[in-house]
Amino acid sequence: MLLSDEQKWKAAVDCDSSYDGQFFYGVKTTGIFCRPSCKSKSPKRDHVVFFDTAEQAQTAGFRPCKRCRPDLLKFEPKRETIEGIKKVIDEFYTDPKQLKKEIDELGISKNSMIRLFQDQLGMTPVQYINKLRIEKAKELLLNSQDTILSIALQCGFGSLSTFYRFFQHLVGMSPIQYSKLFAGKEDVK
């Protein structure tokens, strides 16, 4: 079904993502083109021209919007942001000071980061970090001769009691019980 210009205009003003890929709109005064779902300020109707493809818009001399990236097949800014945060956490989760520094450099507010994690991963950043730390601890308990205190510190826990509390909560047993059960270690310190 072909859309009329008025239907396209309504979709653009409503930022309706269900029309993404069906058409693009360009703003003559700025020389920028967008997806229908773009959250940019709505232009005046008489400044707008519609295109069937991104290539048509570019051929007509319009450049892609930096907010909605109509030049990309798929644009998921939340997913890209989460992947960036996860990459930092995955690299620095055992070093709390460095992790805080790296996260601060991303320029994302704490509340935004928590909301993104909840929406995209179903957990908070702290829950994700503790999950990584406990997985690392389980690996070390099974494959190293290190003491439990040493393992707790290597995994980024500030104290043995914190380590024990999180391990018990996430694994359902103490680190000593886990080590004895799965690694057959009887002399765990």
Automatic annotation (TrEMBL):
It holds the Pfam family HTH_18. Residues 83-181 form the HTH araC/xylS-type domain. The keyword DNA repair applies. It comes from the Bacteria. The keyword Nucleus does not apply. Keywords: DNA damage, DNA repair, DNA-binding, Metal-binding, Transcription, Transcription regulation, Transferase, Zinc. This is Bifunctional transcriptional activator/DNA repair enzyme AdaA.
